[in-house]
Amino acid sequence: MPERLRLELDPLAIPLRQLPVRQRLRAAWRVTLARLLPLGGASDGNDVTLFFNGDDAYDAMLGAIARAQRRVWLETYIFEPDRAGRPFLEALTAAARRGVDVVLLYDVVGSPHLTTEHVAPLVEAGAVVVAFNPLWRWRARLPMLHRDHRKILIADEAGFCGGMNIAEDYAGAKYGNGRFRDTHAALAGPCVADLADVLRGSLRTAGGSHRPAMAAPPPQRGGVFLQVLGSNVRRRKRHIQRALYHTVGRALSTCYLTTPYFVPPPRLLRALVRAARRGVDVRVLTAGISDVPVAAAAARHLYGSLLRAGVRIFEMTGRTLHAKTAAIDGLYASVGSFNLDRWSFQRNLEVSVAAVGAGLASGLEQRMREDLAMSREVALAEHEARGGWDRLVGWVAYQLMRL
Q1: Domain for residue 273, yes or no?
Q2: Pairing relation of β-strands 320-321 and 180-181?
């Protein structure tokens, strides 16, 4: 059975009169929603499919590209010309040859192996290929550490976003090696136009070609309420960060975060500690086997105050975690590219899609329970028994991750 979850639930009414929850929870989320809506990118009548397996996500994405007749815009941090990337290059080239408006935006730091030779057939077919923030300083428009970490695909009226880049590490046996446990989302409905606007903003930041705004697709029958959030600190857009502070800071019952790199800023750490102390079930799932070992060491430096406050911390050891999700109070959930580290909070272009309603939250909570089966819980006594060398390594790693 494919590792995916399709959400087809009644849309959320605003204000939250129709939510079958306790009055206190309903009232609290009415206030929280009032703070979230000004961040923009909100629409009702959307359809969401969650993918937990890269092969399923790639098949859906390649199928959408093959069916597209008007536009295929792909933005990604990592694009490897490997067993996963080659089918995308071929699909994009075929789309350009049949007259589709094709744009490929990739980050040069994340995609060092993607050369002009690899994209030459795509360019010859008429596609626009943009390298984000080249390292050659005479071509650079932005600081070197300002990277495009978004993962977005717009194929006509279909949209995709989440944590999966285009590379074998994110795929299963069909396209790759299954190294990462990640989460991606397919979207349909008005939210796709909001997602396209985020990508168009990335192009403007990169100095790439202008693309006209996309007309909002019609609402899906029985669709859900979604909000597309972007982060571009250089343009003073911190919508994902603000949404995190609002939702974690006002959580009443549960707060489940999944992140491969857990080095959040002090403000979010304080919000997690306060949530746990007021009785919220706060759980953080992070990477035990990390592709960035310095991030894992830095995260362990922060565990103490969280564990003492009652936050439960789990490290995935069965696979390398790469998913970035949140599920709060069984009513709010998000999936995207945003890591809980300084790079995402202060530097990278990021994107997340969030839902207010029970469907996405319950799906991510169920997936977290499954992920915990291949994870280990960190005990406070174990953490406090660390040796001096481990403490020093953690402190140094934390300082490095704050640069």
Answers
A1: no
A2: parallel
Task: Determine whether 30 is exposed, middle or buried from the number of CB atoms within 10 Å of its CB (0-12, 13-18, 19+).
Answer: middle
The CATH number assigned to the domain holding 199 equals 3.30.870.10
For the record, the structure tokens of 187 come out as: 């979207």
Q: How far apart are CA 88 and CA 102, in angstroms?
A: 12
Q: Is 284 domain-assigned?
A: no
Give the C-alpha separation, 84 to 76, whole Å.
13
Ramachandran sector of residue 71 (left: φ over 0; alpha: ψ -120 to 50; beta: rest): beta
Cα–Cα distance measured from residue 310 to residue 273, given in angstroms and rounded to the nearest whole number? 8
Q: Residues 199, 150: contact at Cβ < 8 Å?
A: yes
Distance (Å, rounded) from C-alpha 390 to C-alpha 396?
Answer: 10
**Range of 213's domain?**
22-260+322-372
Within a domain: 386: no
| Structural domain total, the chain | 1
Cα–chain-centroid distance for residue 192?
15
Contacts of 154 (CB under 8 A, 6+ apart): 71, 72, 73, 74, 192, 195, 196, 199, 214
Give CA angle at 263 (260, 264), nearest 5°. Answer: 110
pLDDT per residue of the chain (403 residues) written in tens, 0 to 9: 345 555 443 333 443 444 445 566 777 788 888 899 999 999 999 999 999 999 999 999 999 999 999 999 999 999 999 999 999 999 999 999 999 999 999 999 999 999 999 999 999 999 999 999 998 755 567 888 899 999 999 999 999 999 999 999 999 999 999 999 999 999 999 999 999 999 999 999 998 889 999 999 999 888 889 999 999 998 899 999 999 999 999 999 999 999 999 999 999 999 999 999 999 999 999 999 999 999 999 999 999 999 999 999 999 999 999 999 999 999 899 999 999 999 999 999 999 999 988 788 999 999 999 999 999 999 999 999 999 999 999 999 999 998 8
CB atoms inside a 10 Å sphere around CB 81: 18
User: Which residues are identified as catalytic?
Assistant: 149, 151, 156, 322, 324, 329
Q: How many CB atoms lie within 10 A of CB 77?
A: 23
End-to-end CA distance of the chain: 44
Residue 248 counted as domain residue: yes
For the record, the structure tokens of 91 come out as: 């699909």
The pair phi, psi for residue 108, each rounded to 5°, is -70, -30
Backbone angles phi, psi at 344, to 5 degrees: -75, -40
